[in-house]
């Protein structure tokens, strides 16, 4: 039986972390990206059926960590997911998809996996459609699949996130670190190596198949608490500020990435808390990285990048 674990999107933040976690656990890894390099690297365009099939060939488990450009989720995510599913199905592999929380839309109280897909915004609807495609394919017997969901993430390699440039790159450069949204509400944050550990656990445990799981996280801090930890990790030198809705609109007039955040601002103006009870009950208590250690490692990584 194959022990080949294939990581799609292996040069992205989550994909690279998953490949590292798989290697640390002794699995044989194929790291797939458009411009692969290094041991285990495999070049493929997985937006095409031929590329997806080639990438997944011979796999026992495929980790879907790739995604279209953020601004094109609504147009491309469902079709992209369907293409990946075709490759996984042809290989006879299991699928573990890295996902987020967009499909739930605005919520009250901690988020559990049984929430309806109530998002009305285009990105949320696209993520809901992609997740539905995966779970429908499982129910139809086309593939065996599990989904692992995480909140806003940070960590070494986490460049294309709301926390990467605005918080860690800024703090590393001695500039003002900016928290997107209200600094006095709770906001679950996920650390990249912890996300990877959760996804690989799903890949190692076939009983995970057939549903979505909230990956394990630490207690949600407020934005202010998180930024205080960033300040402490910088030796007290990092200044911080909040970006409110008005400032987001102003910056978004010149910055297309910041502009896109307006669509999901409800994630930033109220408590946004993940309930990971189901994962812990099924797979045991995880080893999670303390926020202080995770923040220090992330800040050090951004400093090394210059």
Automatic annotation (TrEMBL):
Coiled coil: none annotated. Pfam families: Epimerase. Residues 6-209 form the NAD-dependent epimerase/dehydratase domain. One of its GO terms (molecular function) is aldehyde dehydrogenase (NAD+) activity. GO terms for cellular component: cytoplasm. InterPro entries: Epimerase_deHydtase, NAD(P)-bd_dom_sf, NAD(P)-dependent_oxidoreduct. Signal peptide: none annotated. This is NAD-dependent epimerase/dehydratase family protein.
């Amino acid at each position: 039986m194959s022990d080949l674990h294939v990581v799609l999107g292996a040069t992205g933040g989550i994909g690279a972390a998953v490949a590292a976690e798989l290697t640390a656990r002794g699995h044989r890894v194929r790291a797939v990206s458009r411009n692969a390099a290094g041991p285990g690297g495999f070049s493929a365009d997985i937006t095409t059926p031929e590329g997806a099939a080639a990438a997944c060939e011979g796999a026992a488990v495929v980790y879907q960590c790739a995604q279209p450009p953020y601004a094109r989720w609504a147009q491309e995510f469902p079709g992209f997911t369907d293409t990946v599913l075709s490759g996984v199905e042809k290989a006879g592999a299991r699928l573990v998809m890295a996902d987020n929380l967009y499909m739930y839309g605005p919520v009250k109280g901690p988020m559990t996996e049984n929430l309806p897909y109530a998002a009305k915004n285009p990105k949320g609807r696209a993520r809901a459609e992609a997740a539905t495609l995966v779970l429908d394919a499982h129910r139809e017997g086309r593939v065996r699949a599990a989904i692992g969901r995480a909140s806003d993430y940070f960590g070494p390699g986490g460049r294309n996130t709301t926390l990467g440039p605005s918080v860690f790159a800024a703090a590393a450069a001695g500039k003002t670190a900016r928290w997107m949204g209200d600094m006095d509400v709770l906001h679950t944050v996920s650390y990249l190596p912890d996300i990877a550990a959760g996804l690989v656990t799903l890949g190692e445990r076939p009983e995970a198949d057939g549903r979505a799981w909230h990956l394990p996280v630490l207690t949600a801090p407020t934005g202010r608490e998180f930024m205080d930890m960033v300040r402490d990790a910088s030796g007290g030198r990092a200044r911080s500020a909040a970006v409110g809705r008005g400032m987001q609109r102003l910056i978004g007039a010149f910055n297309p990435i910041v502009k896109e955040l307006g669509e999901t601002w409800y994630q930033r103006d109220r408590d946004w808390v993940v309930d990971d009870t189901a994962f812990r009950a099924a797979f045991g208590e995880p080893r999670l990285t303390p926020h202080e250690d995770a923040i220090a490692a992330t800040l050090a990584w951004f400093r090394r990048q210059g």
